[in-house]
Amino acid sequence: MAKNHHLVCLLFFLTAAAVAATVSAAAANLTAYEMLERYKFPRGILPQGVQRYLLRPDGSFEVFFSGSGCEFRVGGRYLLRYERRIAGTARAGSIRGLQGVSVKVLFVWLGINEVDRAGDQLSFHVGPLAASFPLRKFAVSPRCRCGFDCATAGDAAVAAS
Predict the structure, then answer these.
(1) Separation in Å, CA 126 to CA 26, 71, 80, 123
(2) Which of 132, 131, 73, 70 is nearest to 101 (CA)?
(3) What is the pLDDT of residue 152?
């Protein structure tokens, strides 16, 4: 009887390991932006330039950018900074324990530690404070230095020539 119990445990472990390996292999073929969409987030919460990412079965992740990271303005009001490495734990519609993303408020950089999706709104949490924005504003990934306004600036330069 004990041998059967050990065999069942071994089969369960091997099956779980095979499923985890399959999930990891499937995730390896998806971009970080596509993985965001699987977690019910728009790709635009992550700027262009991801070099690589790691996603573990428990939802914890790490995303790596080249150089020193990425900074850009949002709506002329907020300056955002993504460090070279960002990390956190993702669940459908929720990112917790976010590290490496900060916003400049007045003269101080504050870490964004949580992002939640509720319907068509995204809420970014800085400690006990939160700011919400329409989901549609994050349909496209921003570019470092110029943010979401890159295409507008480029279009204006082309139109002026």
Answers:
(1) 33, 17, 12, 10
(2) 70
(3) 52
State the burial class of residue 71 (Cβ atoms within 10 Å of its Cβ: 0-12, 13-18, 19+): middle
Residue among 97, 131, 90, 89 nearest 114 (CA): 97
Lookup result for tokens 């998806």: 30
Continuous H helices in the chain: 2-28, 32-38, 150-160
**CB atoms closer than 10 angstroms to residue 47:** 22
Is residue 76 within 8 Å of 93, Cβ to Cβ? no
Q: Is domain 31-160 given the CATH code 1.10.10 in the classification?
A: no
Domain boundaries, the chain: 1-30, 31-160
Name the pairing type of β-strands 60-65 and 70-74. Answer: unpaired
Q: Average pLDDT across each block of 10 residues of the chain; the chain has 161 residues. List them in order.
A: 40 37 53 94 94 95 92 84 97 96 93 96 94 92 84 42 31
pTM here is: 0.74
pLDDT at 159: 34
